[in-house]
Amino acid sequence: MLLKRKHPTRIGGGALTHLSPDSIDRISSFLREGRKESVTISDVMALADLMATSFDTVIKGRDESAYREFCAIADAITRMRTDIGNLQASELGKHRIPEAGQELDAIVEATENATHTIMEATEGVMAADPNDPERYRETVNNACMTIFEACSFQDITGQRIAKVVETLSMIESRVTRFAEAFGTAEADAPGHLSEKEEQREKRKRELILNGPQNEADAISQDSVDALFS
Amino acid sequence: MSVDLSMPVLVVDDYKTMIRIIRNLLKQLGFEDVDDAADGSEALQKMRNRKYGLVISDWNMEPMTGYELLKEVRSDEGLARTPFIMVTAESKTENVIAAKKAGVNNYIVKPFSAQTLKGKIDAVFGG
C-alpha cells in the first residue's frame, strides 16, 4: 500500500489522534506533492483503506483497555460480595437487631413496672395515718419490702443492656471493616440522610434537642444556678 | 416558703412517671392544686382556659416542646408573666442560655432532688 510504505509509523500507528484534521491534511499534501498530479481514485481508496486499518487498530486497543477495566470491575464486585457476606446483614437484620429491640422494650417495661411499684409503695406510706403507730409501722415495713423486691429489676436490666451492647459492638466492628475495605471517604460523605431523618435533625437543631448528656459533658445544677444568679 | 400554696400549678411532661413524681413532691411541699399536660400545645390550651400560678415544664416533648411553650407563653400578653421553671434532662449550657434568653425563671437539671425543686420555687417567688 502506497501510504503505508512511505510513512508506516506515522499513519499505521493506530492512535486515533493520527486521524486529526492536521494528520489528514498531511496525508492530502503527501498525495498531492508526491505525484505532482491530481489525486486519483485509487489514492483515495488507498487512504480509505489506511484509515480503516488505523481505526481497526484503535478499536482493538480500546477493546483490550475495556477488557482490563471490566476485569477490574468484576474483581471489585467479587470482593464487595465477599465483604457484604462478611457483614452478615441478614443475620443482623433477622435476629440480632430485632432481639436488641426486644431487649430494650423489656428494659423499658421492667423499669416502668418497678417505678410504678416503688411509687405505689411510697404513696401508700405518705397516705398512712401516723396516729395509729402499730398500723403505720406495718404499712412502712410492707412498703420497704415491696421496694426492695422491685429494685431487683436492676440485675435483669443490667444483663439485658449487656446483650444490647454486645450487638452494637458487633455491628460497629462489621461496619468498620466494611468501611475500611471500601475506603472511608465514601462512608463518611455527608448527604446520606433520608428526608424524614433530615427533618428530625433539623428539628433537633432548631429546638436545641440535645438530650441527656454524659456526666462529663453535662452542666451541673451549680453551674446552672450561677447563670441565674 | 413565701409562696401561695393554693395557687394552681401546671406540670408539663410527656412521661407520666415524671408527672407523678413532681405531683408527689409538690404535694409534700404543700401544693394541693396540681394539674398536668402531656406536651406544650396541651399546656398552652390549658393555660388559655385557666390562670396558673406556676408552670413546671419538661423541654423535650412532641409535638410542642417546652422551649416552644416558653416562647409562646412569653409572647402572649395574657400569659407572659406566668412564672415558668424548666425541669429537663437537656443539660448543655446552650440549652440553659437559650431558655434564659427566652425568659425562663429558673432551670432544673434532671435528675433532681426535692430540695432543688423547693429551692427553685422559693427563688422564683422571692422566698
The mean pLDDT of chain B is: 95
Strand count, sense and closure of the main sheet of chain A? none
**CATH C-level category of chain B:** Alpha Beta
Domain tally of chain B: 1
Q: What coarse outline of chain A follows from CA principal-axis ratios?
A: elongated
The total strand number of chain B stands at: 5
- The secondary structure category of chain B is alpha/beta
Please name the CATH topology of chain B: Rossmann fold
- Roughly what percent helix of chain B? 40-55%
Q: Strand share of the residues of chain A?
A: under 5%
Oligomer: heterodimer
Specify the structural class of chain A: mainly alpha
Largest interface: A-B, 23 and 30 residues
Number of helices of chain A: 10
Largest sheet of chain B: 5 strands, parallel
Strand tally of chain A: 0
One letter per element, helices H and strands E, the order of chain B comes to EHEHEHEHEH
Report a brief summary of the structure.
The complex is a heterodimer of chains A (229) and B (127). Chain A has helices spanning 2-6, 8-11, 21-35, 41-87, 89-127, 133-150, 153-182, 184-187, 195-206, 221-228. With 229 residues, chain A is mainly α.
Overview of this structure, please?
The complex is a heterodimer of chains A (229) and B (127). The radius of gyration of chain A is 40 Å and the shape is elongated. Chain A is an all-alpha fold and 229 residues long. In chain A, helix 5 packs antiparallel against helix 6 and helix 5 (89-127) runs antiparallel to helix 7. Chain A has two domains: 2-82; 88-184. Chain A contains ten helices and no strands. Chain B is an alpha/beta fold and 127 residues long. Helices cover 43% and strands 17% of the residues of chain B. A five-stranded parallel β-sheet of chain B has the order 2-1-3-4-5, sandwiched between helices. In chain B, helix 2 runs parallel beside helix 3 (66-75). Chain B starts with 8 loop residues before the first strand and ends with a helix. The interface between A and B is medium-sized, with 23 and 30 residues.
